[in-house]
What does this fold into?
Amino acid sequence: MTAALFDTHCHIDDPRFDADRDQVILNMREHSVQFAVAVGFDMPSSRQALLFARSHPMFYGAAGIHPHEAKTYHADDLDELAGLLRDARAVALGEIGLDYYYDLSDRPVQREVCIRQMELAFKAGMPVIYHVRDAHEDMLRLMEERKTELTGGIIHCFSGSMDQAKRYLALGFYISFAGPVTFKNAPKLWETAAFVPPDRLLLETDAPYLSPEPMRGKRNEPAYIRYVAEKIACIRGISFEELANLTTANARKVYRIPPCGTLLDGRGVH
It folds into this structure.
């Protein structure tokens, strides 16, 4: 069986890739990474993610305002985000959410900007990439209050409890695991990675952040998703190839990418 990997979340436009971005993309091919999503975290990076995806067939793009950047939000950003979501290479709104670990934006501001972007996703009919750190209960409350409007998506780099994972799954979300699942002190993540149903499981790198073992301490890159896949395959007691192909099929499903690789017609903000 041939393995095919899909990095559902990376920041390939990060300046840390400026010196060797072409080599990083070659490394992806050499390590069976067929596709990746370049994810925006503010307006400039969202524009850049879609621009990059247009010129690199291995990549799709996502646009959104991260909770750290919520303090930079302006009302006209929603109109621009709506336009970015109409791009032929756009597959999701994101990353958005809540981060109470760093609190780089005031919590009420984070919640307000998150809600406004959720409402945009409802209107667009787009899946959402959620960043949630030390804020799962508040995020779940926002979602559960709007559960009839939710358009699906991903809980990226999952860091919550088993109970919280079950609640996200009940709302229809996919659970994505990154480098921390490979760490030696992550038994709760291992337990959740074993529990998530096979049709809701995703992989990511969040490159250049969160490098997995044995690359911890180095700059992360999409090719290193292989180590995340190997760890979760071991946890679940299946082959690397089976895990890789399963999670790639899930990524195509959540991002609504048909087997031919092109995007479905008619999706976007109307």
Remarks:
- DSSP finds nine helices and eight strands in the chain.
- The CA atoms of residues 37 and 60 lie 5 Å apart.
- The chain has one domain: 10-254.
- The radius of gyration is 17 Å.
